[in-house]
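Format notes (please read before filing issues)

Several people have asked whether sequences and structure tokens are stored in separate files. They are not. Every record keeps both together, in the order shown below: the sequence lines, then the token lines. Line labels are part of the format and must not be stripped during preprocessing.
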Amino acid sequence: MSQDSGDQTLQPDRPNLRPARFTGRLAAPSFVLPAGVAENARFLAGKVDEVGLCFFETQSCLDYGPQDLPPDLATRPLRWHVHLPVDLPWPASKSAAAHPARRAAQLALSVLGKASFLQPRCAVLHPPQGSPQMQRRLLAGFAYHWKNCCDVPLLLENVAHSDIASLGQGFLQDHGLGLCLDVGHLLGYGQKNLLVSALPEQATMTHWSAPGDGDRHLPLAAFTPGQAQTAAALMQRIPDSAVHMVEIFNWDRLASSLPVLEALAQSHSGG
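Then the structure lines:
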């Protein structure tokens, strides 16, 4: 993945720019430099607590070999989670099959298996397209197959076509699912129902970026005053146990966002 990677070069000797007073768990995506997963992970070790493996494309991730995910990654001082593919084969319409999400779940589990040696602590999933009713049916089936095959917690992320709140009160708990709260998506898509729901208090993970015109994953300094105010209010509601991933696919822009994240965290702690 090269989105927003700019013209950076690999510079493993860059200083640790982690906010000194940020006490939350800090994560970064596995593509902040124009290089492979392994090079990015080695670069991020010591700078963040956790790496989100951006396994966005099913087939290319299934094709990963030891050169892409070398065994020595397990020795790095990092925790890991997996962002599951966004091109899973969800049915495009109502299916008469008893388990229409089985194939999507099987492929997602195969992709997750590529990182099993890293013991990922959770996996993030984009809900499928469709009406809330169809989403509920597919996600319930997906969760059923997932839980029957592994014990890695599964988090749903709010995206353009699903604010998660539309799935209904109690859906996540009923199916053993967690929430990955994408603040940039909430702001960029005007997800007011999610904002006023009780879901932010349940977030296991947050994604931080400024939306810009839609969903551009801009540095946090690009927040408008209104967006910054909403983001600060959200930070106060997010559990202390949540992992905060700065989802910006460029290290310089990610690093420039850390003081903003620290300021939001200080507003949360009253500092």
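For reference, the curators noted about this record: Strands lie at 25-29, 50-54, 79-83, 123-125, 154-157, 177-182, 203-208, 243-246. The first helix runs from residue 37 to 44.
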